[in-house]
């Protein structure tokens, strides 16, 4: 055994031990983890992330920094593999990450939630680097796994990795398809399981239509405002689906559901405060920016998004906008203050809507993701539920 191979084995063993200790990797998926090494599905040029998944390091090239590259592969961190739909290649970082090799603990927690059984046919939305599809194919057989990727270059690279891994390890090769994941893949339907490796704000009705009754859909889901969790839906005999959120998540958006946010200038035609109504609040803008806070605000306040404008001294302005380009609001955070200035303009008082939503959540004990549920009609209409309460939620 070469020194490099010995180091590979040691790194994989450390990662497996960490995942087993976290409870994300179970004994049912351990053989697939061992048979399908992650490093076979990470390109030579990569951008390692952190455990939170929301900040990427600078570019690491395997031939130039092998130790850093291997350290990332054998760590429980996401690894960005494409920026700006391939338009940016480096050095440094691009603007928007558009493909990745997901954090291993997230990969195996979602595969565990999928609950696959021998003979199941699985549709994966978002091939990415191909690792998730390879794990499924090892477990179920290549003919039972269909993976759809919208980006032809990403799909081709994943297919090459899948075939190379099969030649090296004897792993099965899944059915790879280039197409819009929102459409699923009708020719090989019906499916027993669907798993998405990209986030959605609405469950495509095509997914439901391509499922057998009793099928399970595991997908990252998040509202317009922000915040996101993995939902596990069970499909009923009538083509509807419902189920709980099982954990938080942070995935790239399904390309079919990406949105372009209107620019600042679309809202303010004159310098701030632009005739807005001033008020104050005791709710700190800094206290509503957590991932679960944003999720709650998003599912309670429709068609609103936010941006922040840092002032470099620990203070910043939280900007709120409606997607209909009719209203905006600002809330100024300054460290040490107990009241905060608010300015609102337009037919919607957006800060008031945000505060009402947050206070609603506070009054219920600030429940976490696992307390919320999602129900989807056969036509794609969605409702969020919390205990006995439920309400419609749009994309």
UniProtKB/TrEMBL annotation:
The keyword Isomerase does not apply. Its main location: cytoplasm. This is Protein-L-isoaspartate O-methyltransferase. SUPFAM superfamilies: S-adenosyl-L-methionine-dependent methyltransferases. Keywords: Cytoplasm, Methyltransferase, S-adenosyl-L-methionine, Transferase. It is an enzyme of class 2 (transferase). One of its GO terms (molecular function) is methyltransferase activity. It is found in: Cytoplasm. GO terms for biological process: methylation. The keyword Nucleotidyltransferase does not apply. Belongs to the methyltransferase superfamily. L-isoaspartyl/D-aspartyl protein methyltransferase family. InterPro entries: PCMT (IPR000682), SAM-dependent_MTases_sf (IPR029063). It comes from Streptomyces lycii. Its EC number is 2.1.1.77. PANTHER family: PROTEIN-L-ISOASPARTATE O-METHYLTRANSFERASE, PROTEIN-L-ISOASPARTATE(D-ASPARTATE) O-METHYLTRANSFERASE. Signal peptide: none annotated.
């Amino acid at each position: 055994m070469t020194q490099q191979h010995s180091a590979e084995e040691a790194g994989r063993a450390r990662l497996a031990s960490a995942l087993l200790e976290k409870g994300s990797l179970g004994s049912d998926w351990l053989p697939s983890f061992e048979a399908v090494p992650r490093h076979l599905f990470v390109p030579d040029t990569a951008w390692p992330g952190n455990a939170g998944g929301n900040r990427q390091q600078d570019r690491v090239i395997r031939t130039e920094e092998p130790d850093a590259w291997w350290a990332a592969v054998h760590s429980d961190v996401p690894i960005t593999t494409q920026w700006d739909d391939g338009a940016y290649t480096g050095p440094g970082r691009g603007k928007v990450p558009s493909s990745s090799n997901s954090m291993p603990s997230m990969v195996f927690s979602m595969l565990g939630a999928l609950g696959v059984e021998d003979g199941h046919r699985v549709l994966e939305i978002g091939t990415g680097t191909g690792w998730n599809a390879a794990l499924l194919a090892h477990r179920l057989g290549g003919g039972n796994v269909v993976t759809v990727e919208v980006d032809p270059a990403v799909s081709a690279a994943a297919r090459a990795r899948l075939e190379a891994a099969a030649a090296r390890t004897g792993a099965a090769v899944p059915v790879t398809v280039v197409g819009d994941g929102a459409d699923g893949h009708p020719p090989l339907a019906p499916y027993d399981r669907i798993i998405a490796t990209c986030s959605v704000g609405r469950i495509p009705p095509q997914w439901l239509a391509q499922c057998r009754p009793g099928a399970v859909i595991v997908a990252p889901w998040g509202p317009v405002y922000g915040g996101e969790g993995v939902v596990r839906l069970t499909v009923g005999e009538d083509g509807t689906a419902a189920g709980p959120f099982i954990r938080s998540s942070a995935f790239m958006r399904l390309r079919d559901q990406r949105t372009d946010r209107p620019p600042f200038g679309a809202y303010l035609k004159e310098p701030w405060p632009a005739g807005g109504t001033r008020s104050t609040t005791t709710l700190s803008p800094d206290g509503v920016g957590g991932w679960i806070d944003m999720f709650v605000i998003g599912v309670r306040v429709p068609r609103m998004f936010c941006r922040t404008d840092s002032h470099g001294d620990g203070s910043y302005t939280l900007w709120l906008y409606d997607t209909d380009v009719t209203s905006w609001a600002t809330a100024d955070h300054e460290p040490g203050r107990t009241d905060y200035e608010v300015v609102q303009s337009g037919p919607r008082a957006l800060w008031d809507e945000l505060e009402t939503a947050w206070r609603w959540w506070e009054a219920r004990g600030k429940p976490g993701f696992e307390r919320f549920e999602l129900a989807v009609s056969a036509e794609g209409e969605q409702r969020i539920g919390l205990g006995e309460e439920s309400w419609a939620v749009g994309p």
